[in-house]
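Section 5.1 Outputs to date
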Amino acid sequence: MTTVIKNGTVYQNGHLIKADVLIDGQKIKAIGTDLEGEETIDASGMIVSPGLVDVHVHYRDPGQTYKEDIKTGSQAAARGGFTTVGAMPNVTPVPNTAELMEKMVRENQKKGLVHILQYGPVTKDETTDIIPDYAELKKAGAFALSNDGHGVQSAQTMYLAMQKAKENNLIIAAHAQDDSLFNKGIVNEGIAAEKLDLPPVTELAETTQIARDLLLAQKTGVHYHICHVSTKTGVELVRLAKARGIKVTCEVAPHHILLTDSDIPEDDPYFKMNPPLRSKEDQAALLVGMLDGTIDLIATDHAPHAKAEKQGSMREAAFGITGSETAFSTLYTKFVKEEKVFTLEQLLSLLTDKPATVFGIKSAGLLAPGENADIAIFDIEHQKEIKEEDFKSKGVNTPFTGQKVYGETVMTFVDGKVVYQRGTK
């Protein structure tokens, strides 16, 4: 069966071109003009992109499936135009062993609608100082390591973990957080903490651990990746480290560039995430870091929770915001269409080829003949309201509900198969 996507604007090799894309089975057969197939999809006025790549999602499966599971998480990814994701290991049980990792990889492949890559933990259960057998985890299918949700508190433990990760050619993707400085905070130290009388989180909780880890990464030579960098100082540290030749990369989450702590209107748990929303000065530094290449990619930190966990006061509610289904449209609307901070090509690169390159994910983030037909089609001409009832995720915990945006996903292909189509259940 051959399918041709015609009349669209195609993102290929960093450029937008008018072209047709011919799909034959699981692969892209050709990209060009006047292509013909057994089935035709008219993409007039739409963007045809490589499937987006998100290296930071939480699927809560196994053990916390009332929040999300592999099926619903991957459905949400597909609706957002993502075809490859990296799932964090903060599940129950944590995949500390080869046996548990193999089981998770099997379930991801069996139940997922998109390509799901699985992280292994940096330390056993993510909160101890015991380092698992990285070689066995990698052999069982782990593509990288992370304790996301938890910073590694002991410098000695992180030093040993980096040495072992380097030996096994594994990336450590770190949630930089010194718990003693985080000190059970709720919102960023600043305007919201003062206005709402909520426990503050100092930026030092993030930045001191980034500084520590960069020195350890320099010593060990490991590829150190910083999850959801959120502070001006964090960006400055990464910029300095890159200039000194340290092998460091980092990501930014959509909510940290779309919102600041001054946007928190009241004690609303949908604005509670970790790291917290920062200041306007931090937001500006993040945008500069994205434009000058200090920040390598965008990752959503998709963190679904049950409604009951995101009600009441921020003091008791869970940290986390969903992102898979809102990332492209909110970012496109604000930063490309309205404020013109980025070009569309820059935004697509941060969501496709750059994450694939940083994490060495083959056949992801690009459109080319012979490659997997992982493709997303976006409607950038028509406005759409973000509504809870449209979500595929079990989690609806986002403050973006009710916003009117452009860039709705029309169709998503994985290995040439349609896994999401607008207007279908």
